[in-house]
């Protein structure tokens, strides 16, 4: 997981000229960010284990990128909620949670004899 986010950060860095551009509007930059970076970063997130550490890493990654797009430095003392408000974005962990719930909804509607439905109620056996 950590390596995935590092790779996504590298992709974000390659587009540094786009984020710094004064000729592109904030809306275009955010649309590019959402479609290229966010969608890549949370690809297959429905299957990830949900831990506090992973959720925190997702949000740190997201906030760091949004601050870069807005041109905000740590010296500006802007809260994370203000950054999300200015960019009209949600926390990445909330987007992932929504995607996970959507996937569970699909699996619940699958006929009971299908393997995906079995996986939802499967309990692993303990080995001593």
How would you describe what is shown here?
- 66% of the residues lie in helices and 0% in strands.
- The protein has seven helices and no strands.
- α1 runs parallel beside α4 (52-70), α3 (26-41) runs antiparallel to α4 and α4 (52-70) packs across α5.
- It is elongated and about 55 Å long.
- It has one domain (2-121).
- It has 128 residues and is mainly alpha-helical.
- It starts with a helix and ends in a 7-residue tail after the last helix.
- It has helices spanning 2-14, 16-20, 26-41, 52-70, 80-87, 92-108, 115-121.
Tell me the domain tally: 1
- Evaluate the radius of gyration: 18 Å
The description of the largest β-sheet is: none
Q: Tell me what portion of residues adopts beta-strand conformation.
A: under 5%
The portion of residues assigned to helices is 55-70%
Number of strand segments = 0
Taken in chain order, the helices and strands follow as HHHHHHH
The N- to C-terminal Cα distance equals 30 Å
Counting DSSP H or I runs of 4 or more residues, the number of helices is 7
Mean pLDDT: 86
> Are there runs of 5+ residues with pLDDT below 50, and where?
none
> Which class of secondary structure composition applies to the elements?
mainly alpha
Q: What overall geometry do the principal axes of the alpha carbons give?
A: elongated
């Amino acid at each position: 997981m950590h390596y995935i986010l590092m790779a996504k950060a590298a992709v974000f860095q390659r587009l540094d000229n786009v984020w710094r551009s004064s000729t592109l509007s904030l809306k275009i930059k955010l649309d590019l960010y959402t479609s290229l970076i966010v969608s890549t970063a949370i690809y297959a997130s429905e299957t990830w284990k949900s831990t506090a550490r992973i959720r925190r890493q997702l949000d740190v990654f997201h906030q760091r990128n949004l601050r870069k797009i807005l041109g905000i430095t740590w010296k500006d003392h802007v809260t994370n909620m203000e950054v999300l408000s200015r960019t009209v974005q949600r926390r990445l962990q909330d987007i992932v949670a929504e995607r996970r719930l959507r996937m569970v909804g699909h699996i619940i509607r699958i006929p009971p004899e299908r393997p995906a439905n079995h996986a939802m109620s499967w309990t692993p056996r303990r080995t001593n």
